[in-house]
């Protein structure tokens, strides 16, 4: 609908017409052009841009954000999922314009690193059950899938608070009540984040 409205206004201004002067047959043509928006991080301008799907993200200039929740694939990655990274970069650039700093303090972790953190948490919390509220083993955590970001864990918490309030526009959601720093791509850019889970032990 957004792009249809833009097209109507664009056509009207092109021909020097007000929107209500568009002939019925022209409206008919505009209404038949249906397309969905595509979200991209435009590198030169450092901005989130929304393009029609028949244009798509511009190769060499845009990084796509993806248009759905992002889930585990088949192959284990060795870095942050590129769609998730583009979402973060878009949010980081938008926050920066407001003077708010966002940083990824922990993103991708190897399965070995994740299991080390889990074993350490068992020692700290005295039981696996309690440890899993804070650190999941590598087969359950989304950090080794490059799909989880710990934001501003060692920096100003207000950045993560901003991301919690505004992340859905970029497809990033806070996940747990007990972890203000942990974000995942649980919705489409411009979508709605699901309700918070009490803690990580509630996953799966
Ligand atoms: Zn995390």
From TrEMBL:
InterPro entries: DD-CPase-like (IPR052179), VanY-like_core_dom (IPR003709), Zn_M74/Hedgehog-like (IPR009045). This is D-alanyl-D-alanine carboxypeptidase. One of its GO terms (molecular function) is carboxypeptidase activity. GO terms for biological process: proteolysis. Residues 1-18 form the signal peptide. Residues 81-178 form the D-alanyl-D-alanine carboxypeptidase-like core domain. SUPFAM superfamilies: Hedgehog/DD-peptidase (SSF55166). Transmembrane segments: none annotated. Keywords: Carboxypeptidase, Hydrolase, Protease, Signal.
């Amino acid at each position: 609908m957004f792009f249809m409205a833009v097209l109507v206004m664009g056509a009207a201004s092109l021909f020097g017409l007000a929107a209500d002067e568009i002939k019925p047959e022209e409206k008919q043509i505009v209404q038949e052009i249906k397309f969905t928006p595509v979200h991209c991080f435009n590198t030169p301008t450092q901005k989130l841009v929304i393009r029609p799907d028949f244009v798509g993200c511009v190769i060499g200039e845009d990084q796509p954000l993806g248009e759905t929740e992002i889930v585990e694939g088949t192959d284990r990655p060795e870095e942050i999922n590129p769609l998730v990274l583009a979402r973060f970069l878009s949010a980081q650039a938008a926050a920066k314009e407001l003077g708010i700093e966002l940083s990824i303090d922990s993103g991708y972790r190897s399965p070995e690193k994740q299991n080390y953190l889990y074993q350490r948490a068992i020692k700290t919390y005295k039981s696996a059950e309690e440890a899993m509220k804070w650190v999941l083993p590598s087969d359950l955590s989304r950090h080794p899938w490059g799909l989880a970001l710990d934001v501003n864990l060692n920096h100003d918490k207000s950045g993560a608070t901003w991301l919690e309030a505004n992340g859905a526009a970029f497809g990033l959601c806070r996940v747990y009540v007990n972890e203000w720093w942990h974000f995942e791509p649980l919705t489409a850019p411009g979508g709605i984040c699901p309700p918070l889970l009490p803690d990580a032990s509630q996953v799966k």
